[in-house]
Amino acid sequence: MKIKTGCVHLFLFLVLIGCENEVQTDPITENRVFDVAMQGVNPAWFERAMDGVDYGIHRVEKYGEMAADSATLFRNSFEQMDSHNIQRALLSHGVYKESFLDKRPDMFLLSYEPDLSLEDHKKSGPGV
Amino acid sequence: MNRICHLKITKKAALEFEQNILNGRYSALGELGLIYEGIPLNTPDLYPYYEIAEKHGVPVLIHTGFSGPNPQQVLSPAFRIGTANPLLLEDVLIEFPDLEDHNDAYGLALL
Known about the structure:
Helix content of chain A: 40-55%
Largest interface: A-B, 31 and 39 residues
Oligomer: heterodimer
Shape of chain B: globular
Distance between the termini of chain B: 26 Å
């Protein structure tokens, strides 16, 4: 009986010690990161195009499934960017390119794609 | 996905690109997915844009190398990896020696 009581007390002591210790964060990198090739691609397109592909950059790793809607896309994207200390990103193509910029204008830079027609250039440029 | 790359490159379009650099809307050129249409990286069609990018110190992002499995079926039937040999950029860099250059793994060159 005494031994059991001693073990219980020791266990509680160790638990309290663990709780009092400062929670250790696990930053993947302390260096500030600039993502030079970020795309605002529609997840629905990506899923269709990469159906059955589990290769290279197309591996579904973190969340196990593609984002079902734009709100999830943005939430998951910003979560990953923050956890990897990505502070700035250069956005190229994708239907959500402008939306990413609207949500965090301090984080994103827009890249110009000259594969549009001249008419599309006029529509995309402010006052041009 | 059919990624259509309309290379309607005119001097006027390039000047509009320059205007959007000056007004702060754009900070880079690209991603230029020339490989998806089988267009070689050293195509002179883009030289008007490179001239402006070099002039204003704007980086250029170019897709080089591979993309993923079965690109002709998944991405574009015109996809040709031979057109995306990074060595083809040598012509561009000789013509525009002050163009900012960065090579990314897997297939991106940031000039």
